[in-house]
Amino acid sequence: MIVQTWRRAALSAYILAGLALAPAAFTFATTAANVKALGVQKTRIDQAERKAASAADEALNAYSAAGQINQVDSLPHGPVDWSEIAPHVVPSVVNISVIQRPKGQGESNRVWLVPGVQTNLATSLLNRLRAWCHGWATDDQTREWATIGAGFISGDGNTVLTAAHVVNDAESVRVKMPAGDWRAARIIGHDYAQDVGVLLIDGEPGRPMPIAPAMPRQGQAIATIGAPAGWGFSLSAGIVSRYGEEGGLLKPAKFMQIDAPITGGNSGGVVFNANGEAVSMVSYGNQPFTQAVPIGRVLAVADAIQRGRRYSE
Where in the sequence is the domain holding 263, given as residue range(s)? Predict the structure, then answer.
């Protein structure tokens, strides 16, 4: 009798426990689902905030890098057929050939640009030693024209804009026009820190390169035409990788970064959008990317050079 009573009590307790566990399990499952839903929602909110912050940062960088151009292209763009666009850009592009200054005893070395170095006896003796070791005197006797960069026509049609480092050490400069004729050119000036140079070419005016009214967004298609390895009017295409500040040639500067393949000879080439409008100029490569000077800054620096002033941001 006692055993049966204990059995009934145990069964009753088991049933009651089961009945109690069902709501608890339901509550636990519901709570877990709610926590998961809240987690998913928070992730979505975080992603949206990051996306908005990234877009705002991109726009800010594009604005600050653009110089005179303070808009970012907001229009949708489809696939680009560069074969349709390049023929409209080439008439505004030139290739640049130079004869380098004689190396002599090293006086044209860039280290001489540093204030105070010119009067440094140790540096002078070191340059003379390098000149003797590397046979610079022999090299000077075999100097010849070499196509080392590109540029594009601007303003009145006789002005060519290019990278400063293309013409910085040049004794003589000439440009090859799209029609194939060579023109003598004179260096008006260059800003090596900003990597912008200005040339004046002889003869009939060429066709100025149209300027984009807005900067392309990150990911939008761009292309450039230059003279890689001396091969003139060569097209490279890619996208805008990012906007940001890089080391620059002499000091940090804001750049448009692109992934279009470039090599020696592309420097100074115009970077243009899907409408065939200039958005920047090739400065230097940092494989696999290339830093390009935004067109607004190119124009501002060129204007300062032509006015005989020093450019300041």
Answer: 71-102+143-313
**Range scoring the smallest mean pLDDT among 97-101, 233-237, 240-244, 305-309:** 97-101
Mean pLDDT (the chain) is: 78
pLDDT digits (tens, 9 = 90+) for 274-308: 999 999 999 988 777 889 999 999 999 999 999 98
Q: Are 153 and 254 found together in one domain? A: yes
When divided into structural domains, the chain yields a total of: 2
Check: CB of residue 219 under 8 Å from CB of residue 203. no
Confidence class for position 26, pLDDT limits 50, 70, 90: very low
Residues 149 and 217 in one domain: yes
- The answer to whether residues 184 and 61 belong to one domain is no
Residue 113 in any domain: the answer is no
- Of 19, 44, 66, the one marking the end of a domain is 66
pLDDT in tens, 150-200: 999 999 999 999 999 999 888 889 999 999 999 999 999 999 889 999 999
110 within a domain of the structure (yes/no): no
pLDDT of residue 279: 96
